[in-house]
Design brief:
The complex is a heterodimer of chains A (292) and B (446). By secondary structure, chain A is an all-alpha fold. Chain A folds into 2 domains: 71 residues, no CATH class; 212 residues, MetI-like (MetI-like fold). In chain A, 75% of the residues lie in helices and 0% in strands. Chain A contains 13 helices and no strands. In chain A, helix 10 runs antiparallel to helix 13. Chain B is an all-alpha fold. Chain B has 2 domains: 186 residues, no CATH class; 246 residues, MetI-like (MetI-like fold), CATH 1.10.3720.10. In chain B, strand 1 and strand 2 form a beta hairpin. The longest helix of chain B is centred in the first third of the chain and has 37 residues.
């Protein structure tokens, strides 16, 4: 790595190279610290904002006179926030289960079986994932309206799950392709069925990519704004994304501190989940997208 | 070999395959009955009868509806609806659903003919014809992948393919406010008129070219800045003298971990021109507040800077892995040849990193072309641009489409723009994908 470049420096300018190196190290530390401030500022600011005694953005101070937890109490008691939280959790949970099942089953079929129509199917998936998601928005709206799933959580779950298939199936298929087939063949000789092979051999081997798919499909509903706003109409059905968006765009930011408290309560669990599983996320994304 | 089927034994040279296929073409299941596969034949025949009796009328009227998009205009008198009239958009969706179902039926029909042909071939070869139980077992074995795929196919068909077909068809109609909005009025097929309007009418073309240009600049800037900033930090943290590598990486990965929409909304407040903390601080210092989000140029700069905050952690995490994986002997060899630090970076590190990340880089570029969240949640396309129709200064195509659809009811124009955008993104992605190893190694040809 960079290590060797410094060795060379030492040999050519033996005098002053120590100083030069110290200068570089100091410079890097300075940049790293400055960046850390830039990175952490919004995070710290929103946490402090949520603890500010005032209500508006204008009265929010970086160093408030005193801290208070009243906004956490307020959003929990005076707004529909707990309801939005429960809605989002429900949608996220069912989307996770349905998406994962659909994606993994499709990926397994594409990766381990050779059947007529496979090639066309793969190509179709590839092309479908490139369409801008809401090109079909009007149609989805009318479709849900006709089957009575508009302003219904299940309607939204179906939309999410359906949308996750093309990209997810490609990614997981890429990962499955990289797994050795010898184990399965041995199991097949021992008389194991496809289903057994899948659950007993494929699933344990593909832990990173399964983590990736379950986690992304769990997180997606917390982030999505477009479809949630399209499908969910009434206040009691809203998800957090819409609720929080309306809190800061609605009326002159008078609810800023409430928004801050709400944002912290969403961000903390998701962020922790992400940091905890980041190894799998990076690995899964790289393995699936690039395959080596 | 003892033939199980008697007729096969009596007429060994009869043309079973062709006759079976012809009979099945005439009516589903006839060929199977001819081959004495009674249960299968009856099931096939029942399916066709069921579809013919209960659905043929619905199919025909749905497809007719798709063709005409409705003929009876809603009649009102004194503000009250006297006659409902046809709803063109419902008719259109019904028509597409009918077409999809007909396609599925034709697929089954073709399979029925193929099956009759294959069974006939078996009989010609004097092989035993499978009975129903064997057929079921056979279907289970061969149809397993289809069974696995069917839920995904069903979901994709109705939630992705159907809406897309609909979205594309809209481009060829005049479905738009204020004069062609059902249920009040009908929608008609107009061919390529909306495409022509987009390029010919000044109001549309100015907006389209303006928005598309910024869209391209945005995608290039957003991708390039995050990529190089990510690389820079990966290299710096990897420096041998830097301690607490894990600590720095964890801090820098935070922006990636925080839910993006929340972070964007936080930035929206931080950069608030009137009440935001940055401007408040500037005013306290006796300086002028900066119009972070309300000046067209400044808003664009703010967008790119905020996007660096979101985007660089991903590249940093990815490149840290790649950097540690580079063979150190290469640098040692370069040292022997007397290469300088920057030479080593540009000739060894950079090409290797670029090679490993090229497909992801292009994917990120395509993603940034469509980066709805950052633009819409931060500026909502604003500030206002008086030269544009229904778009603001920082709108990219996708947010413009969103506004055209949800706020302005300009459905057909929105659809035209999305088709054009899709063509660009799809060709980029397919070109990118066809170069990856995943594609080349894929045994597409069996």
């Amino acid at each position: 790595m960079i290590k060797t470049s410094k060795n060379r420096d030492k040999s050519t300018f033996s005098l002053g190279s120590k100083n030069k190196e110290r200068l570089i190290t100091t410079l890097i530390y300075a940049i790293l610290i400055a960046t850390a401030v830039f990175v952490l500022y919004p995070v710290v600011w929103i946490i402090i904002g949520s603890l500010n005694p005032g209500d508006t953005l204008f009265s929010t101070k970086f160093l408030p006179d005193n801290l208070s937890f009243k906004h956490y109490k307020e959003i929990w008691q005076d707004t529909d926030y707990p309801l939005w939280y429960a809605n989002t959790l429900k949608i996220a949970f069912f989307n996770m289960i349905i998406s994962t099942l659909l994606v993994v089953a499709a990926a397994y079929a594409f990766s381990r079986f050779r059947f007529p129509g496979r090639r066309q199917g793969l190509m179709a998936m590839l092309v479908l994932q490139m369409f801008p998601g809401f090109m079909g928005m009007i149609a989805i709206y009318i479709l849900l309206l006709q089957i009575g799933l508009l302003d219904n959580h299940w309607g939204l779950i179906l939309v999410y799950a359906g949308g996750s298939i093309p990209f997810g199936a490609w990614l997981v298929k890429g990962y499955f392709d990289g797994l050795p087939r010898s184990l399965e063949e041995a199991a097949k000789i021992d008389g194991a069925s496809h289903t057994t092979i899948f659950f007993k051999i494929m699933m344990p081997l593909s832990f990173p990519i399964l983590t990736f798919i379950t986690l992304t499909s769990f997180i997606a509903p917390w982030m999505d704004f477009i479809f949630a706003r399209l499908v969910l109409r009434t206040n009691e059905n809203k998800t957090l994304a819409i609720g929080l968006f309306e809190m800061v765009t609605g009326r002159g930011n008078t609810d800023f501190t409430k928004f801050a408290a709400g944002a912290v309560l969403v961000a903390v669990p998701i962020t922790l989940l992400f940091l905890f599983l980041q190894k799998y996320l990076i690995e899964g994304l790289r393995a699936g997208a690039n395959k080596g | 070999m003892q033939p199980q089927n008697e007729s096969a034994a009596f007429n060994p040279r009869k043309n079973y395959a062709r006759i079976g296929a012809l009979l099945s073409l005439l009516f589903m299941g006839l060929g199977q009955l001819y081959h004495r596969q009674f249960i299968k034949g009856i099931l096939y025949a029942l399916l066709e009868l069921y579809v013919l009796i209960f659905y043929s009328n619905i199919f025909i009227s749905s497809i007719y509806g798709l063709y005409t998009l409705g003929e009876n205009v809603q009649v009102r008198s004194r503000g009250k609806i006297v006659e409902q009239g046809d709803h063109s958009i419902f008719l259109m969706i019904q028509g597409i659903i009918a077409l999809l179902l007909v396609a599925i039926f034709i697929f089954i029909y073709v399979n029925n003919i193929r099956d009759a042909y294959k069974t006939g071939k078996l009989r010609e070869a004097q092989a035993p014809v499978p009975n129903f139980k064997q057929t079921l077992a056979n279907t289970w074995e061969k149809g397993y992948p289809y069974l696995l795929l069917s839920p995904a196919v069903f979901f994709t068909l109705f939630l992705t393919v159907l809406p897309l077909i609909f979205g594309i068809m809209i481009a060829f109609t005049n479905y738009s406010g204020p004069y062609h909005l059902p249920p009040k009025s009908l929608v008609d097929w107009v061919g390529f008129k909306s495409f022509a309007d987009l390029f010919r009418l000044k109001t549309w073309s100015t907006t389209f070219y303006g928005v598309a240009t910024w869209n391209l600049i945005w995608a290039i800037l957003a991708t390039a800045t995050t990529y190089f900033v990510g690389l820079l930090y990966a290299v710096m943290i990897n420096h041998r003298k830097i301690k607490l590598k894990r600590f720095w990486r964890t801090i820098y990965i935070l922006p990636w971990a925080i839910p993006q929409f929340i972070a964007i909304l936080i930035f929206r407040n931080i950069f608030n021109g009137q009440f935001g903390p940055i401007n408040k601080m500037l005013v306290d210092l006796g300086l002028q507040g900066v119009p972070w989000l309300s000046d067209p140029l400044m808003a664009k700069v703010t967008l790119v800077v905020v996007n660096i905050w979101f985007g660089f952690p991903y590249w940093m995490a990815l490149m840290s892995g790649i950097l540690t994986g580079i063979d150190k002997e290469m640098y040692e060899a370069a040292d022997v040849d007397g290469a300088t630090g920057s030479q080593k970076f540009w000739r060894i590190t950079m090409p290797l990193v670029l090679f490993a990340t090229a497909p992801l880089l292009i994917m990120a570029f395509a993603g940034n072309l469509n980066n709805f969240n950052v633009i819409y949640l931060l500026t909502q396309g604003g500030p206002v641009n008086v030269n544009y129709s229904y778009a603001g200064s920082t709108d990219i195509l996708i947010t413009w489409i969103y506004k055209l659809t949800l706020d302005q009811s300009q459905f057909s124009m929105a659809s035209v723009v999305s088709i054009l955008m899709f063509i660009v993104i799809a060709s980029l992605s397919i070109w990118n994908f066809s170069r990856t190893r995943a594609f080349k190694e894929e045994d597409m040809i069996q």
